[in-house]
Amino acid sequence: RLGTADIAALLAGARALKCPGFSVLFRANPFGVPRLGLIVPKRVFPRAVDRNRMKRVLRELFRTQQARLGSRDILIRLSAREVALAEVEQCLVG
Predict the structure, then answer these.
(1) C-beta contacts of 39-48 below 8 A and 24+ residues apart
(2) N or C: which end of the chain has fewer CB within 10 A?
(3) Where are the extended beta strands (E) located within 29-71?
(4) What is the mean pLDDT of the chain?
(5) Is residue 74 predicted with pLDDT exceeding 90?
(6) What pLDDT is attached to residue 28?
(7) Enclosing H/E stretch for 33
(8) In what order do the strands lie in the sheet with 35-39?
(9) Cα separation of 34 and 1, whole Å?
């Protein structure tokens, strides 16, 4: 997982793909494995149960695509309650 400093670096200067409901930020890393960071705001999902469930779903999506992602840091930031997981998967791989 990405730490706080890594997330700040991604937010400061990384390539971003913006889609309705979410954005995905990418940056190459020297570790040889992909790393994931998630931002699921309380204003989008007020209940902790819903935030945690969305994080579990996104982590599982990342885990299934991990072999095809290469060596990069990925930050997924949600901005809407309704997110098409197929679109997130397409942004990760593409």
Answers:
(1) 39/7, 39/75, 39/76, 39/77, 39/78, 40/78, 41/78, 41/79, 44/78, 44/79, 44/80, 44/81, 45/78, 45/81
(2) C
(3) 35-39
(4) 92
(5) yes
(6) 92
(7) none
(8) 15-19, 22-28, 72-78, 35-39
(9) 9
